[in-house]
Structures are given as C-alpha cells and as structure tokens.
C-alpha cells in the first residue's frame, strides 16, 4: 500500500525503515534537511530493544558515547555530589549509551532503504480521511502541503512531533500540547578548552527553579541545556532570545556562565510539554512518536519510545497484512500501556529536575546520597530502566 509519513524525525525515519520492504513509503519533512538541534540523550529501554530488532543498534551505538556519570555543582563552583552511570549500564545489561539527538536521526538516515521517498521542505498543513471528514472524494486519505499540492495514500502516519497537525483529527479535543510548567533551551558550540575541563561527566547544577547542564559533546564541542519553571497556562512556542537567555540563567555555575557567554543567535527553545491522545488511530490516520504520546524531555525517554512505538506499529501492520484496520487496533492495544507508563514517569521526573524550593532541593541531595549506597543504586537503576 502507499504510506505517507508526516515528519522525518526519529519516529518517522524508524517507521520508514521498517515499512519500506513491504510498502511504498513517502516521508514529508518540513525542515530543509536533517535537523541539527543537539542535546545529549540517554538511549536505553524499549527503544534500545526495538533498535536491536530493526538491526540498527550498531549504527546508533557507533555514534554514541559512554559518560562516567553526572557531577552536581553549586553556584560557587563547588561539587555537591555525583552519580555514576555504571550501575545503570549494568542493570540494563549493557543496553545503555548516550548519543546526541541529531546523531540518532543521522544514524537512521544512513540505513534508510533507498526505496523511501524522503522529501525535505515539505510541510503538511492539513490531513483528511474520508471516514472522518468526508474528503477526499476518491475515498483515500490525503495530506495537503504548504505549496498547495495534495498527496493521497492508503495510510497516513503522523510522526510530526508534539505539535502534530493530525492529533486533533484523530483525538478531537486533544490537539493542543499539555504544558508541564517548564521551558527548556539547548545548543551546541565549539569550546575545546571547556570540553576538556568537563571531561567524561555531565555537569548538572544544584539549583532551585532553574537548572543547567553542560557536557563535552565530542570534537571539542560543548552541549548546554537549560530549564526553568514557567506558567503552565501558555501553549505558544516561545521565541528564542539570546539576551534573555543570558540574563535568565546567569549565576547557576561558573562553567555554565562560560557556556552562556557563547550562546548562539539561534537555538532550540520550547515549552516542556506532553501530548495526550486517548486514541491513537482513526480511519486511515494513525499517530506515533511524540505526536501520539510525547513524554516530555524531562522523562529522558522520548527518543527511545519514539523508536519503539514506530517499530511496534510496523510490527502490528506486518502481522495483520492486508487487514490494515486490525493492524492499527493491535498497535493501539499493545503499545498504549508502555506509552502511558513512560508519560507517568515523565510527570514524576519533572519536579525532580527543577526543585521548586530549598526544601525540595535538600530532599534531592539526600536522595542522591542514598543512591550511592550499595544495592540502592541497582534498585534505582532498575526502576529507571523498567519499560
Ligand atoms: C532539550 C531536549 C532534551 C531531550 N532529552 C531527551 C533524552 O534525554 N532522552 C530521550 O529519549 N529523549 C529526549 N528528548 C525528546 C526527544 O528528542 C523526542 O521525544 C523525540 O525526538 C521524538 O521523536 P519524534 O520523531 O516523535 O518527534 P520529533 O523529533 O519532534 O520529530 C518530528 C519531525 O516532524 C517534522 N514536522 C513537524 N511538523 C511537521 C509538518 N506539519 N509537516 C512535515 N513535517 C513536520 C519536524 O520538523 C521533525 O523533524 C529531548 C527533547 C528535547 C527538546
């Protein structure tokens, strides 16, 4: 059948990889090429296992990195604790590494079958399904593109991220994002000196209301991520503003201040949000990845569940062959519990990353010390890694 995938990010490319042997696949991606926005992600859990099944894990691992762990730092530059990644890696049976998000996309592109028709600068503006809104007359599902053209297909899969154009059609009333009360920024820049100082540990600031991360991202680059608490009423994507960024996050830690001084003109800046869809498919339109169930960046598992969800959808479609509706129903039945579990964990971990006040910060510091005790680290590792 003809399958149109909206979005050539992690979910879209994973799905295209899996569907290409059996179907005619077109991927429509709004950006002009692979998106460079970089932040380091921890890759483990259901996506790791899915990537093994897909045969792409070695490609991804070759682009990854093994950090020693996290170092916590206070505004005066002192170290206030550390967590080693070793117990997590052991508890995951070695199925755990760090990788820059754009490298996941580039790795999937490197193994994308040549039969996939991947179109950049192709923004989808509307989605139609004959069983839902009566259009188009041909009885096939269709997408409208920004250039005024229409593309019909037998199945449309929305992999277009947390602000999906298709979610409202599939799950009416659930089109908007669900902000979690945080705003996050990230960027990469060249700074061999700071990269060497940061070494093999990510720096995370031990601060209230605002938090910063800095890490050596390879090739003399430094990666920075900054998050702050904001009003959860707003859903509009904020406009990146370098001056505001430098003012807002000044004083978290001397190394973060140095990295802030090099903030580029343009950088990733968005609200931390979830996408909630009580149903994942309707007619011939189906959601996967962040479009279906964004757990938010603070869950630290968005990429993993995006790959796993896409692979689960492809597996269900493969199993049911020509009975596409049955495949979509099977995907929803099998996949929803995992997606919901990761979303719950995302809601819990948000507060952990950016403590609201000194008392909460203190509790975290105590919890961190407990993690250092023999046995506890393994327990924590298991609970983090549980799919
Ligand atoms: C700062 C930050 C840190 C994160 N940290 C982690 C982490 O540690 N671990 C982790 O696993 N995850 C992390 N994530 C989350 C992770 O990046 C996402 O959950 C994951 O990339 C989801 O993939 P996706 O393909 O579903 O969506 P996306 O990556 O958002 O891809 C959607 C694609 O669709 C395209 N698109 C959007 N609208 C349209 C349209 N109308 N027409 C055509 N194309 C369109 C976009 O350009 C994009 O390429 C983090 C995210 C952020 C922002």
Any overview of this molecule?
This protein is an alpha/beta fold and 387 residues long. The protein has 2 domains: 2-66 and 100-177 and 274-352, 3-Layer(bba) Sandwich (FAD/NAD(P)-binding domain); 179-273 and 355-385, D-Amino Acid Oxidase, Chain A, domain 2 (2-Layer Sandwich), CATH 3.30.9. Helix content is 38%, strand content 25%. The strands form 4 sheets. The chain has a 7-stranded mixed beta sheet with strand order 5-4-13-14-15-12-16, sandwiched between helices. It has a 6-stranded mixed beta sheet with strand order 7-2-1-11-18-17. Strand 14 and strand 15 form a beta hairpin. Helix 1 (10-19) packs parallel to helix 5 (101-110), helix 2 (46-54) packs across helix 12 and helix 12 runs antiparallel to helix 13. It is globular. Bound molecules: flavin-adenine dinucleotide (FAD). Residues 6-12, 28-31, 35, 39, 41-42, 101, 123-124, 159-161, 165, 184, 186, 225, 268, 289-290, 294, 297, 300-304, 306 line the site of flavin-adenine dinucleotide (FAD). Flavin-adenine dinucleotide binds at residues 6-12, 28-31, 35, 39, 41-42, 101, 123-124, 159-161, 165, 184, 186, 225, 268, 289-290, 294, 297, 300-304, 306.
